[in-house]
Amino acid sequence: MTRQDLLANLPPIPTDDLLPSIREALESSERTIVVLDDDPTGTQAVFDVPVLTQLDADSIRDAIDEAPPVLFLLTNSRALTVGQTTELHQTLGNILKEFDNDIIVISRSDSTLRGHFPLETNILRDALGIPDAPTLLIPFCKADGRLTVADTHYLVEGDTATPAHLTPFANDHTFPFSHSHLPDYIAEKTDGPVDVQSISLEDLRTGKVAEKLAALPASSTCIINATSLRDLDSLALALHQSDRRFIIRSAASFVQSLGGIVSRPPLDPWQMQDLEPNPNGGLIIVGSHVPKTTAQLNHLLKNSPDITAIKLSVPDIINSTFNLRNTTSTVETALTSGKSVVLFTSRKRFDGQDNPAISRTVSQTLVDIVRSIKARPSFLIAKGGITSSDIATGALGVKQAQVLGQILPGVPVWTIGNETLHPGLAYIIFPGNVGNEDALTQAYQKLTS
Predict the structure, then answer these.
(1) How many Å separate Cα 119 from the centre of its chain?
(2) How far out from the chain centre does Cα 179 lie?
(3) Is the same domain home to 182 and 96?
(4) What are the residues facing 160 on neighbouring strands?
(5) pTM for the full model?
(6) How many CB atoms neighbour CB 205 within 10 A?
(7) What CATH number corresponds to the domain at position 414?
(8) Is the dihedral of CA 354, 358, 360, 364 positive or negative?
(9) pLDDT tens per residue across span 303-335
């Protein structure tokens, strides 16, 4: 299906700007939007927002007491087992329950429908003490080209709109799914019957969303259709004006709408550079194996002859024949000579590669390499959500960061704190499924211009 066919005959998108009213409503409520982010890519639509990776009760309480309009808590739960994410969300829910109506909780996850759903939202509903709250499912994401029309979720690239279940993401080894029609997707992911409702594009664009929210049955799951940020803005304003409590499961774009955050152009190179000149090269870590990441890596290697490319053999890593010291030395030598390095895992698949234990071993190897490098890179890009989370917390020691903005649409940049291996470094979190084939090359060229 073409994008034009998908969007044909839809109600017109209203032209009035709702963001000032949303910001006013959020400010007057004195509430903080707390986003439980299942990997770091959820910050791809915001700026000047704090991110907390240290999730003990005191750290969370202190961060909320600062009263930021939006606060991200990095759970990295997409890399956790069912048991681990159950325990984590019960703990977080119990902590957040103390703040009751002073916060709005969003469970942020993947726009391609991967993640622990509805497990995490069900746990939060119970832990927060709101068992009758409806769940809003909002997978629309502008930067990623994810649209929801007539309760069906699509991935749009160029002029082609593909139902989500026909994309490689539906074959994810941890979170596979067989349906793009979201009522069927919800049934596939749910044990037992569930009351599925829907808010249509017509509801959002003709002023009916408030009454639809008010009429949702207790504990139901409501699909939110959207093809534009303006659709989400309509929902956001209605939620701020409602006295009802909801559980929200969304992709990144709804955080922007609910926070009343304007869209900014991508960052300029000077905004991502060290305050003091740094003669070292930059470092790019590629761990994601989705097809788009591999295409972007190949484009970078083909079009960047000045970059030092180092391939890590996954079989060598799992067979314990990988030499960490030699690899670290090679990377450090290149960086200190002023050359940038792309360090990537081998792309060829083999039997057993999808074993979570193997993934953890490979990820830990990437962490060990970055942690062992003493030279400060002039920039650091981590490709893939789980990879970027592991590098942030395991290698760099990030406990808190600030979102600067985006280097490219949908690609967030953090400034990391003084507690880290490289204080103040620009850390680029590059989602595995974002951007055209040349996007990684664009980011590299921007940082080295």
Answers:
(1) 18
(2) 22
(3) yes
(4) 2, 157
(5) 0.93
(6) 19
(7) 3.40.980.20
(8) negative
(9) 999 999 999 988 888 888 888 999 999 999 999
